[in-house]
Amino acid sequence: MNFKRFGRPAVIAIAAGLALSSCAANEGDVAITGNDASASTLSGTINGAGASSMGAAQEAWRAGFQTANPEVTVNYDPTGSGAGREAFIAGGTDFAGSDSFMSDEELAGTFASCAPGSKAVDLPVYISPIAVIFNVEGVDELNIDADTLAKIFAGTITSWDDAAIAALNPDATLPATAITAVHRSDDSGTTKNFSDYLGQTAPDVWTEKASDTFPFSTGDGAQGTSGVVSAVTNGVGTIGYADASQAGSLSTAKLMVGSDFVAYTPEAAAEVVAGSPLVADRAADDLALELNRKTTNPAEYPLVLVSYAIVCNEYADAAQGALVKAYIEYIASAAGQTVAEEAAGVAPLTGELEANVAAVLATVK
């Protein structure tokens, strides 16, 4: 099917129609999500790699899918978004997980696992807030605005008792401890979302374009989400950013949204995504989102990431394509989203996004 770049009402209508036709076509299909695993006819191995942020969700998805489809093995290597996209483009994996959608340059190239002349698409499957995590002796709560956060990670605010931090936290006893700002050392979609947020909300300070690579030579780098969490946990006067599902027992900051300080919640992250449009001028079956970072609504938490499953719209190996399609259909379904919500505490896809992803997957082969 050739899609056009429709507005949201039209996309919903298309998704609804495809969902009905898909149900009829898929009766007795290969992917079983209930308890009757004996009905599954799927077999083989699916290899994926990419975003470490959704590591916990991928573990849960793999377990659920393999239980329902016992002749299938699903592997997922949380190497980071950039490495995951590179591996998929080169044909080393069957799909990629990425906290940032594919760039125009990536889309202009070829994809080794895809059929000649076909491309890959970005499908949202995971929504999570990015937590600003910190470890400062005597400080359990922290309010921060975008300018101050940008200055901390750009290296122009270097002490916890800085006047800018003190003004936002008048009731806190801030120590004269040096700030160690921990960022991702690998190419990371979490970094791209973090820098996109700061670039849009503190443009006078954060002058670099959003990128998977941390743009400044300040602070300390750490590999993967777990590396950042470990560095903040074990350091002194540390601050970092990580998928909220992996923040653990670390203290987390409230962000200024409008005139209020807002703590992250999955629901507040989902609200931002629900109000964000599709990225303009991309293929109609590519569901990359332009996240609304500048919201002033305190019901929304703008420092959010959307992780995408990146798949071929047509695979060179049709049998492998059927395997991947079945797995992504599962993780993007209501059942799969509930599994992720229970495993990682993240927000499920909105009904609209779920329908749109299902509509695109109906055309994957």
Automatic annotation (TrEMBL):
Sequence ranges assigned to domain PBP in this UniProt record: 37-334
Signal sequence, renumbered to the chain: 1-24
Superkingdom as given in the UniProt entry: Bacteria
Pfam families: PBP_like_2 (PF12849)
NCBIfam families assigned: 3a0107s03
GO biological process: phosphate ion transmembrane transport
Organism: Cryobacterium gelidum
Family membership: Belongs to the PstS family.
This protein's name: Phosphate-binding protein
Keywords: Phosphate transport, Signal, Transport
Coiled-coil regions listed: none
One GO CC annotation: ATP-binding cassette (ABC) transporter complex
GO MF entries: phosphate ion binding
